[in-house]
Inverse folding.
């Protein structure tokens, strides 16, 4: 059993770190966020939130504040260039799953989380870069910041992203794997597209050359994200990516390439692309990690640092919210259950869902392959996609059931 009250340090003020702080506060657990940047990281653009994450944001009191700040939608269409509907993928559903999907600018979501943390007086220290863990005992962990100052807490949580420094304490030699693909996106006014009347977006239009994504954003959908995936021959370090990303015109040309094979509204979409609206997301993956916590269980990693997920099912951020919320629910019961056992349950529970998401990704990737490629795959590959396990979990009931089982075992 952990001695209460607990004191948690969170490294990173991204979406995982901010939502974790809010969830811990709800459990009356004190925490401080340390962020290396002088302001929150905003990689730009909008993100898509699905019902599994929205029920968490609802439980944390965030949903009512953001629902009216984003674009609500329920399905993603897949069409060929002639306009034929190939498939409809659900990304939410008010009736079916309790929540429509929500496309919201990342900075709007971050600002709302920051405002709520401020209202609750949860401290966030910007410009404080975690360097390394100095020591860990059964009771606490001590770490060093860049510059040499040290600090201690009951738990240190690495919410510091895909290239996590905290993770190095658990896995000194681990390297993330670059998938060789990057998402290239831009934002343009919706009216520029001159979409046919009644044409549903979000949509992915597929041709043998590429898949072209169009997704509305802004409360009224007056802007759309447009994008394609691009092969990138080699991995780069940060300086290398920065150099590549600086050549915006190159990405405009990439988005415009093969436009003649697409319907006229795609050609309109790429006819004028402002450089400052271009975004590039190189896809990295973290290999499956046996442990998301150190041996003494005082150092934990979550979010992208524990399991970066490729984008097919749009679950990267949504899964990070799940990590944070369930971790906080379990720590909130630290007076009843040994936190080592809780962490073991947390990782098993979360990893099982992440693995199901990876499987879902491959099902979705399969369906986006050209027909001739699909035909070469084993029969049964094209199973129907069933999403209630993803969109309708009852996290609180699952945690309460597990805690009750542990308590009765100990009784
Ligand atoms: C261009 C782009 C577009 C994306 N679009 C989508 C999308 O549409 N949908 C989706 O689901 N996912 C998307 N992703 C992925 C998504 O951003 C991640 O899954 C999500 O941000 C993970 O959140 P996180 O909090 O774990 O990590 P991050 O958002 O990376 O946050 C980590 C934070 O830790 C800080 N930090 C790092 N090191 C230290 C240190 N040593 N000390 C202190 N602080 C530190 C960083 O500055 C940062 O603020 C996109 C990613 C990119 C790059």
């Amino acid at each position: 059993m952990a001695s209460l009250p607990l004191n948690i340090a969170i490294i990173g003020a991204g979406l995982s770190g901010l939502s974790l702080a809010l969830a811990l506060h709800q459990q009356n657990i004190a925490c401080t966020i340390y962020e290396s940047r002088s302001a929150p990281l905003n990689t730009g653009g909008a993100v898509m939130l699905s019902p599994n994450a929205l029920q968490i944001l609802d439980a944390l009191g965030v949903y009512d504040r953001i629902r009216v700040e984003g674009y609500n939608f329920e399905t993603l269409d897949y069409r060929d260039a002639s306009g034929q509907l190939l498939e409809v993928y659900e990304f939410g559903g008010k009736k079916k799953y309790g929540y429509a999907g929500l496309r919201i600018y990342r900075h709007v979501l971050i600002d709302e989380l920051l405002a709520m943390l401020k209202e609750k007086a949860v401290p966030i220290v910007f410009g404080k870069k975690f360097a390394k863990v100095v020591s860990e005992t059964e009771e606490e962990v001590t770490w060093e910041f860049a510059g040499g100052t040290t600090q201690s807490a009951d738990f240190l949580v690495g919410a510091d992203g895909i290239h996590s420094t905290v993770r190095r304490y658990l896995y000194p030699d681990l390297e993330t794997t670059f998938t060789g693909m990057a998402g290239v996106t831009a934002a343009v006014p919706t009216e520029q597209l001159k979409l046919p009347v009644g044409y549903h977006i979000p949509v992915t239009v597929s041709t043998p050359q590429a898949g072209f994504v169009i997704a509305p954003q802004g409360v009224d959908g007056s802007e759309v994200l447009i994008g394609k995936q691009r092969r990138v021959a080699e991995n780069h370090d940060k300086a290398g990516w920065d150099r590549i990303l600086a050549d915006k015109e190159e990405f405009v040309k990439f988005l415009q390439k093969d436009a003649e094979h697409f319907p006229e509204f795609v050609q309109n979409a790429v006819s004028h692309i402002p450089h400052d609206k271009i975004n590039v997301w190189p896809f990295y993956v973290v290999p499956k990690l046996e442990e998301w916590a150190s041996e003494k269980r005082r150092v934990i990693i979550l979010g992208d640092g524990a399991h970066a997920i490729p984008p097919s099912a749009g679950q990267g951020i949504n899964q990070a919210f799940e990590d944070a919320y369930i971790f906080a629910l379990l720590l909130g019961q630290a007076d009843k259950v040994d936190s080592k056992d809780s962490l073991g349950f947390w990782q098993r529970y979360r990893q099982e869902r992440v693995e199901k998401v990876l499987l879902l990704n491959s099902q979705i990737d399969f369906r986006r392959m050209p027909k001739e490629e699909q035909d070469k795959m084993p029969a049964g590959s094209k199973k129907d996609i069933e999403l209630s396990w993803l969109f309708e979990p009852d996290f609180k009931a699952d945690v309460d059931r597990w805690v009750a089982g542990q308590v009765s075992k100990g009784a």
